[in-house]
């Protein structure tokens, strides 16, 4: 009990004075500035505005908790792989804030701007700088070549987070796919790859890899190859069945099915590239050992 109490009272100033800690402090401050300014306008009740507010608040809260746990050195008490968790979260936060930095000004700032222009402009700037802070954290915590002690800090691990996030964006855009078998297959591809990749992340963070009685690294290479093949089929079939005998209506706003299908097409290509790079890096890590 005495050792535990001593551990709980320890203060690690490097948690806020190291480059990673400074990047996290900037992320906390900038995300707080962004959601505070947008909240002061009262114009965030649309679906896109709600998403932006959730992103800033979520990233602010989790990053603040990470800072406190590292400052007081309480994170060893958690039954998770801390390095994997922080690496996965920083990557996820960078992707979420980047998306928000694009979505918020495009949906909330009119042309020309009519109300609360200064607050919206500063909030957008703070969001962009917040993305840079999280991107810096990802770069600082990324594993060096040959270091696989923290899987989610390696390139394949970071790509896993990217693949899951892009799949979530795809799900948010899915519309009118039930009537065509080709589109149903594409949705099955997105769902299967999302579930498996998400489970890999959870198992890694939960320190459950040691309980898997098989060569997990080689299984991951095989899964990446299978996911790549599946995404190749989706990359071909989705635009083929979505745009065949279909012209873009005029007008076509953000809720237009044609635009949503176009967004899914591009996101499918992004994930295809991600799985390709993931396969290349995973193969090098497993089968090409550098001295």
UniProtKB/TrEMBL annotation:
Residues 15-146, 151-287 form the MARVEL domain. Signal peptide: none annotated. Keywords: Membrane, Repeat, Transmembrane, Transmembrane helix. The chain crosses the membrane at residues 16-39, 51-75, 87-105, 117-136, 148-174, 186-213, 219-241, 262-281. It is a multi-pass membrane protein. It comes from the Eukaryota. InterPro entries: Marvel, MYADM-like. GO terms for cellular component: membrane. It is found in: Membrane. Its main location: membrane. Belongs to the MAL family. This is MYADM protein. It comes from Dromas ardeola. The gene is Myadm.
């Amino acid at each position: 009990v005495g050792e535990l109490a001593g551990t709980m009272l320890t203060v690690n100033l490097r948690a806020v004075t190291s480059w990673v800690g400074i990047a996290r402090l900037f992320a906390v401050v900038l995300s707080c500035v962004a959601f505070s300014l947008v909240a002061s306008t009262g114009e965030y009740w649309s679906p896109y505005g709600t998403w932006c507010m959730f992103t800033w608040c979520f990233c602010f809260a989790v990053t603040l908790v990470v800072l406190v746990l590292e400052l007081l050195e309480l994170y060893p008490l958690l039954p998770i792989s801390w390095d994997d968790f922080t690496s996965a979260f920083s990557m996820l936060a960078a992707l979420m804030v980047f998306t928000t930095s694009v979505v918020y000004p495009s949906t909330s700032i009119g042309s020309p701007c009519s109300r609360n222009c200064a607050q919206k402009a500063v909030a957008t700037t703070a969001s962009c700088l917040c993305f840079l802070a999280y991107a810096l954290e990802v770069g600082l915590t990324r594993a060096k070549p040959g270091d696989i002690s923290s899987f989610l800090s390696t390139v394949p691990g970071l790509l896993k987070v990217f693949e899951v996030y892009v799949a979530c964006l795809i799900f948010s855009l899915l519309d009118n796919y039930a009537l065509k078998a080709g589109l149903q297959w594409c949705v099955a591809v997105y769902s299967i790859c999302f579930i498996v990749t998400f489970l890999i992340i959870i198992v890694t963070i939960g320190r459950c890899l040691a309980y898997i009685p098989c060569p997990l690294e080689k299984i991951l290479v095989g899964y990446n190859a299978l996911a790549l093949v599946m995404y190749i089929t989706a990359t071909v079939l989705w635009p083929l069945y979505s745009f065949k005998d279909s012209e873009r209506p005029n007008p076509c706003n953000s809720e237009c099915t044609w635009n949503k299908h176009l967004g899914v097409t591009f996101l499918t290509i992004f994930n295809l590239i991600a799985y390709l790079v993931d396969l290349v890096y995973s193969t090098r890590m497993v089968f090409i050992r550098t001295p």
